[in-house]
Design goal:
Helix content is 31%, strand content 25%. With 399 residues, the chain is of the alpha+beta class. It folds into 2 domains: 32-231, 2-Layer Sandwich (Heat Shock Protein 90); 237-394, 2-Layer Sandwich (Ribosomal Protein S5, domain 2). The strands form 4 sheets. Strands 3, 4, 5, 6, 7, 8, 9, 10 and 11 form a 9-stranded mixed β-sheet that branches. It has a 5-stranded mixed β-sheet with strand order 12-13-17-14-15, with helices on both faces. The protein is elongated.
Length: 399
């Protein structure tokens, strides 16, 4: 009998051992694929994955508020290890129709969401995966849904992604809204302890970046240590800069400059706030469609505009000698606190992590806007402008 041999990685193996046939393909049906590889959908089976489960459930409620259909989102960590997300919107449709806020209840909780949650400027995705609440349902040992709509209260319960009870009318409803509660499956998540601090940090970011958003986060897991925060910041990015600077006592040579500008060239809007203070660190945060980014054309444009405005003013006022080089983007960062947020109709992210914004036109748009606003401030307050230039030339104090 003739045996054909292949060489793989220096080892000789038989063709029989390497033959790939249709019978080797494993077909997973329903939510089985999600439960077998949960990290592909929520990032991990640890704390990070648990956190994203909350974000996926909260996304619809957050967008209800931003669309003006609800007033606030209430998120509660319950004593029995669950998470409850409630809103006071019109309530998810229960008859299978598409509502103004998205799909009906059954489609919402039993189907995987198409896309990756990077829609237009008005679509906010708290997490980074955008797979939808159906995946959370599949990864939960139990999920309950309550809809208060048109004076009727409806409830339904699920177990590991599958309906465990029929959709049931349980009486009249006072007000309207949707409440979804879930309990992560311990068979998938080794530990099911949610981090209040991590959740608070992300929801606080969203509230800073979306001025009309109000979110309450409550922890009832330990009755003797219950805590609650309500997050709403009408000042937007200006409030964000104040928050980032709240941990320092260093004096600031300038007030916070904050502005919002629509620019049709980038098909979106920018919201920027910044100031220098007398500390050596740079605290800069950038966001695209409310997603945290670590780099991108919006951040590069911001630095371009800052450097151009400071250099132009310093040369005009004789604060730089003719032989001194222009201020580079590396020099303007010392002591700078800034928040740069852009919301685009068609964001383009680089890489699978979506941490870098790639829209080329954004760089020029943000750069010009920053240069205009900072340049105007420098001319209107020469005394403080001189203090800023001196700090950049001399460097901040390192007390």
């Amino acid at each position: 009998m003739e045996v054909l041999l292949n060489v793989i990685g220096g080892d000789i193996v038989s063709e029989e051992a390497t033959r790939y046939e249709a019978s080797h393909i494993q077909v997973l049906e329903g939510w089985e694929a999600v439960r077998k590889r949960p990290g592909m959908y929520v990032g991990s089976t640890g704390e990070r994955g648990l956190r994203h489960m909350v974000f996926e459930i909260a996304a619809r409620a957050v967008n209800e508020v931003l669309a003006g259909r609800a007033a606030c989102v209430d998120i509660t960590l319950t004593p029995d290890g669950g998470v409850c997300v409630a809103d006071d919107g019109p309530g998810v449709p229960v008859d299978g129709t598409e509502g103004a806020g998205g799909p009906g209840l059954e489609a919402l909780l039993t189907r995987m969401q198409a896309g990756t949650g990077t829609g237009g400027r008005h679509d906010v995705t708290p997490g980074f995966h955008g797979v939808g609440p159906g995946v959370v349902n599949a990864l939960s040992r139990r999920m309950t849904a309550e809809v208060r709509r048109e004076g009727v209260r409806w409830v339904r319960e699920y177990a590991r992604g599958v309906a465990a009870t029929p959709l049931t009318k349980v009486g009249t409803a006072t007000g309207s809204g949707t409440t979804v509660a879930f309990w992560p499956d311990a068979d998938i998540f080794g530990a099911t302890e949610f981090s209040f601090g991590e959740l608070e940090e992300r929801f606080r970011e969203l509230a800073f970046l979306n001025q009309s958003l109000e979110i309450s986060l409550t922890d009832l897991r330990r009755p003797d240590e219950s805590r609650s925060v309500r997050l709403r910041f009408p000042g937007g990015t200006r409030d964000f800069v104040d928050f980032l600077d709240s941990c320092t006592t260093a004096s600031a040579p300038m007030d916070t400059i904050a502005f919002e500008r629509e620019d049709p060239r980038m098909r979106g809007v920018m919201e920027v706030a910044f100031r220098w203070c007398g500390c050596p660190e740079e605290r800069m945060r950038s966001f695209a469609n409310s997603r945290p980014t670590y780099d991108g054309t919006h951040a590069v444009g911001f630095r371009d505009g800052m450097a151009a405005a400071v250099t132009a003013y310093a040369r005009e006022q004789g604060l730089l000698r003719p032989t001194d080089p222009d201020f580079g983007t590396d020099r303007i960062g010392a002591g700078l606190t800034a928040v740069v947020s852009v919301k685009l109709d068609r964001p383009e992210f680089e890489g699978s992590t979506r941490g870098v914004l790639g829209n080329s036109e954004v760089r020029e748009c943000v750069g010009q806007a920053v240069q205009d606003h900072l340049g105007r401030w420098l001319k209107e307050d020469p005394e403080r402008a001189a203090a800023v230039i001196d700090q950049l030339v001399q460097g901040p104090r390192r007390d």
